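Appendix B. Raw example, untouched.
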Amino acid sequence: LREENASLRSKINKLQVLSEMQADKMRKLERKLEENKIKEEKEAQDLEAMVQHVEQNLQLMTKRAVKAENSATKLKQENALLQAQLKNYKTENEALRSGHSASLAIMKQNADIALQNLLTVITSSQSSIKQLVSGAESLQLVADLLKSIDKISEIPDDGH
């Protein structure tokens, strides 16, 4: 009985040591799990902040693109008006050349002014069109970024 008792005590001691080792291992795993949860929460917050920032930039770029589009439309209308004026001035200039040489200088001056206005409008419209194209390129970049964010969010969870 004593030998059996000693043997059982030895087994109990071994089991207690094994139990303590497993408890330590479990505590370490629990700490690691908690650290991973905190890390994942921070990454999720960072990702959410980045998405919000991208959305704000997208809204701002959309506003800029609409403004540039409106400006381009207005400049095109001005351009058409000035071209019509230029055509009228040229017609009037031709009429004056045919008989009224005294007012020819005035007509030439009017045509030059119209031409200068036309060139100014063309230059302004080209700038607005360039801004519109730049805004569209920026919007495409943001769209590509959002697509890549979607791809990141679709990555399967590996058991964490």
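End of appendix B.
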